[in-house]
Amino acid sequence: MDDFQIKTGPGTTVVSVRVDILDSVGETLRHHAELDRIERVLLVSDRRVAGLYGSRVLESMRRGGFRTHEFLIEPGEASKSLAVAGEMFEALARHQVGRDGLVLALGGGVVSDLAGFVAATWMRGVRFAICPTTLEADVDASIGGKTGVNIAERKNLVGAFHTPTVVAIDPLCLRTLPARDVRAGLAESIKHALIASPERFDWHEHHADNIMALDDSLTTELIEFNLRIKGEIVERDAFERSGVRVLLNFGHTVGHAIESCAGYALRHGECVGLGMLVACRISCAMGLLNGSEVDRVLTLLRRFELPTQLDQPVATDDVLARIRNDKKCVGGRAQFVLLEAIGKPIVRDDVSDNVIREAYESLLV
Ligand SMILES: NC(=O)c1ccc[n+]([C@@H]2O[C@H](COP(=O)([O-])OP(=O)(O)OC[C@H]3O[C@@H](n4cnc5c(N)ncnc54)[C@H](O)[C@@H]3O)[C@@H](O)[C@H]2O)c1
Ligand SMILES: [Zn+2]
To answer: Which helix (H) or strand (E) holds 116?
Structure first.
C-alpha cells in the first residue's frame, strides 16, 4: 500500500501501512527529509509491547544510523500521568536528546499520548513519530495531533497539539493484541463509517467475519481508510475550532460518561459502541434516523462481539450529570452528534434529558 500524507495546520504526517514495517522503521525515518539529520532518539514503549517488538525496532533504528535509548513505562492508563512525563523529561536530559532529537512512540494510545505530550513540550517541541501497535492507535490515536496526560480529576485534561512526522503501522502487530482490544478498536472503525461513509459501513457488514479473523489485507485496508476518513476531518479542523472535528465525537458523549461512571472497567471502544447505540436511538426518537438503520448498527456491533447492553448498570442520573460536565459541552448545553442516515451526521444541542434518559435506559434491560 502506498504511503500517503495527512496535512494539518501545524504539520504534515507521512503514513505508511505495511506488513513488517517494524523491521525497516529506522530506514523509513532516515529517508524522511525532515529527519535525515537526527542523531539521538528516545524510544518510548510499555514493557509488554517492548518485550514483543522492541528489539526489532531498536535493531532497525541502529541500521538507520540513530543512537536510540529506551524509556519504558508500565502498561496501562495510569502511566499517562504528569509523574511519568516528568521521568521521561529526565530521561531525555540524561540521554542528551536535544532540539534536534526525536521521540519515537511504540505502542498503543497510552504510549503515543504520553510520548507526544512530552515531545511537544521538551525544549518547546522536538520531532515525534509513532509506531502504533493497537487497533485503537492504528485507526484513531496516532492521527490528529492530540497528545496529553491525565490528572486525578479527569482524562486528557492536560495536553498539546503535536503532529507526528511519521506514522508507521505494521498490521501484523494486531495478531498479538488481545481479542477484546481488537474488538474495542473496531468500534472506532464503525464510528468513522457511520459519520462519513455508508459504503464503508456496508463493507464492515460484508467482511465482518474475515475482519474478526484479522485477514491481513482486510486489516490493512481497514486501517488505511480509517486514517483517511479521520485525516480528512482533521485537515479541515486541526484545532477543533470550526466544528467539523466535533463529528469525531459521535458516540463519545454518552460513551465517555459510561466509561468514567463505570470506573474505567470497560474498554474505551466498548463504551463508544454503547454510546453510538444510544446516539442512534436518540436520532430515531427525534425523527432523524430510521429504526431499520438503528437495527443495522445494533447487528454490526453484535457481530463484532461488542457489548450492546450494560451488565453492571450505571445510574442514569450519574450518566446525565457526567454528560453535562463534558469538556465539549458548549454554553452548558450538551452537543450531540446524531445521524440522519448512516454516513450523514448532524450536530444538535437541543436533545432533552428525557430523550437521553430513555435511550440510555434501553441499555439496562
Ligand atoms: N490522541 C488521540 O487522538 C486519541 C484517540 C483515541 C484514544 N486515545 C487514547 O489512547 C488510549 C487508549 O489506547 P489503547 O486502546 O491503544 O490502549 P493502551 O495503549 O493502554 O494499550 C492497551 C494494552 O494493550 C497492550 N498492547 C499494545 N499493543 C499490543 C500488541 N500489539 N500486542 C499485545 N499487547 C499489546 C498494551 O501493553 C496495553 O496493556 C487512551 O488513553 C485514550 O485516551 C487518544
Ligand atoms: Zn474514541
So the answer is: helix 109-121
Ligand nearest to the CA of 136: 1
Q: What is the pLDDT of residue 325?
A: 80
- Ligand 1, atom 29, lies closest to the CA of 177
- Alpha carbons 273 and 347: distance in angstroms, whole number: 18
Mean per-residue pLDDT over the chain, rounded = 94
Residue 179: Cβ-neighbour burial (10 angstroms; 0-12, 13-18, 19+): exposed
Average pLDDT over residues 65-76: 97
Give the list of residues 6+ apart from residue 302 with CB closer than 8 angstroms, or none: 308
Q: What is the pTM of this model?
A: 0.95
Q: Match 442516515 to its residue by C-alpha cell.
A: 341
Please give the CATH architecture assigned to the domain spanning 4-176. 3-Layer(aba) Sandwich (3.40)
For 188, the grid coordinates are: 472506532
Domain ranges in the chain with CATH number 1.20.1090.10 = 179-361
User: CB neighbours of 238 closer than 8 A, spacing ≥ 6?
Assistant: 8, 9, 10, 145, 161, 245
CATH fold group of domain 179-361 = Dehydroquinate synthase-like, alpha domain (1.20.1090)
Measure 133 CA to ligand 1 centroid, in angstroms. 8
